[in-house]
């Protein structure tokens, strides 16, 4: 089983009420291996919602309490991001997920790089809140852009 960002499966749960379906994940024979989650929705945020970015660090810093998640209007949505990350982690652990395929650059799901908190589309190294929490619990994390290894395993018959 694999955790996957709901937006990658075509669910319109992004901040702009759109999805960004990743064609490989929407095919037959794969969906039954995928468990969709949207940490932002599970944390209590609606769709659509104002875009948010991590300010003062990355997801690991948010988990440590040294960075915050703010929306574009300056509203602090850190608690919603933390709540959603913990609920989503519970789903991952209960399902026995081996890995996660998450939306690149998201303040929740970004892996390897996220936006820097200035809303200028500038990237910084680091993971989003949910991605960082998954890594802390030993679950491998990939973005749709870096998941070739995992996607190849999904494609092979077992």
Summarize the model shown.
The chain is of the alpha/beta class and 158 residues long. It has helices at 39-42, 59-64, 78-95, 129-136, 148-155, and strands at 2-5, 34-37, 52-55, 68-71, 99-102, 113-115, 123-125, 140-143.
What is the strand content? 15-25%
Number of domains: 1
The low-confidence runs, each spanning 5 or more residues with pLDDT under 50, are none
Tell me the overall shape.
globular
* Distinct helical segment count: 5
Largest sheet: 4 strands, parallel
Structural class: alpha/beta
Helix amount: 25-40%
Describe the structure.
- The chain has one domain.
- A hairpin with a 7-residue loop joins β6 and β7.
- It is of the alpha/beta class.
- The mean pLDDT is 92.
- 28% of the residues lie in helices and 19% in strands.
- The strands form three sheets. A four-stranded parallel β-sheet has the order 2-1-5-8, covered by helices on one side.
């Amino acid at each position: 089983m694999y955790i996957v960002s709901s937006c990658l499966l075509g669910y319109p749960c992004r901040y702009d009420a759109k999805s960004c379906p990743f064609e490989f994940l929407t095919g037959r024979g794969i969906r039954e291996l995928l468990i969709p989650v949207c940490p932002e929705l599970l944390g209590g945020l609606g769709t659509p919602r104002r875009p948010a970015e991590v300010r003062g660090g990355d997801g690991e810093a948010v988990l440590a309490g040294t960075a915050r998640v703010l929306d574009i209007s300056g509203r602090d949505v850190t608690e919603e991001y933390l709540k959603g990350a913990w609920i989503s982690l519970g789903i991952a652990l209960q399902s026995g997920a081996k890995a996660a395929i998450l939306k690149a650059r998201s303040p929740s799901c970004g892996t390897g790089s996220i936006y820097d908190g200035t809303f200028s589309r500038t990237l910084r190294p680091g993971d989003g809140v949910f991605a960082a929490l998954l890594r802390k619990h030993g679950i491998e994390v990939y973005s749709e852009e870096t998941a070739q290894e995992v996607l190849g395993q999904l494609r092979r018959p077992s």
